[in-house]
Amino acid sequence: MSMRDQIRYLIWKNYSDDVDMNTAIADMIIHALPDMITPLVWKKSKAPLFYTAKTNFGPQYTMRISLSGGAIWSVGAVKGWYSASDEHTAKAAVNAHHRAAIMAAFGVAQ
């Protein structure tokens, strides 16, 4: 049973017999979930311009800032590096990746 179906069933069981309304409510809840995921907290490493953010469910994100202000980031140790124009863009990309990974764990593609 998908996450949407489970939410719809809980709404139906507790509140309403209207399946279309329950589906709409389930869709609204699922649509709101990514915004409820808090951004990652970055920790500065001992190495200059090097930051890490760890998650409770596995991946560790790494970000390196170049002297020119550009940034690269990676997921874990084997995924490769992704470029970003600056630190803020890199953090936004990492947080988007993090949200998508959590939603994928729920079976909801973004």
Would you kindly provide a written description of the structure presented here, covering whatever features stand out?
This protein has helices at residues 3-14, 19-36, 87-105; strands at 43-44, 50-54, 60-65, 71-75, 81-84. It has a five-stranded antiparallel β-sheet with strand order 1-2-3-4-5. The protein contains three helices and five strands. It folds into two domains: 3-36, no CATH class; 43-105. It is elongated and about 60 Å long. The protein has 110 residues and is an alpha+beta fold. The model has no long low-confidence stretch (mean pLDDT 84). The longest helix is centred in the last third of the chain and has 19 residues, at 87-105. Strand 4 and strand 5 (81-84) form a beta hairpin.
Comma- or semicolon-separated keywords:
5 strands, 3 helices, alpha+beta, five-stranded antiparallel beta sheet
Q: Write down the Rg.
A: 18 Å
Number of domain modules: 2
- Strand content of the residues, in percent? 15-25%
Distance between the termini: 18 Å
Element string (H = helix, E = strand) = HHEEEEEH
Shape descriptor reads elongated
Fraction of residues in helix: 40-55%
By secondary-structure content and strand pairing, the structural class works out as: alpha+beta
Strand order of the main beta sheet, please?
1-2-3-4-5
Number of continuous helical runs? 3
Strand runs, count: 5
Largest sheet: 5 strands, antiparallel
Spans of at least 5 consecutive residues with low confidence: none
How would you state the average pLDDT, rounded?
84
Brief summary:
This protein has 110 residues and is α+β, with helices and mostly antiparallel strands. Helix content is 45%, strand content 20%. The protein has two domains: 34 residues, no CATH class; 63 residues.
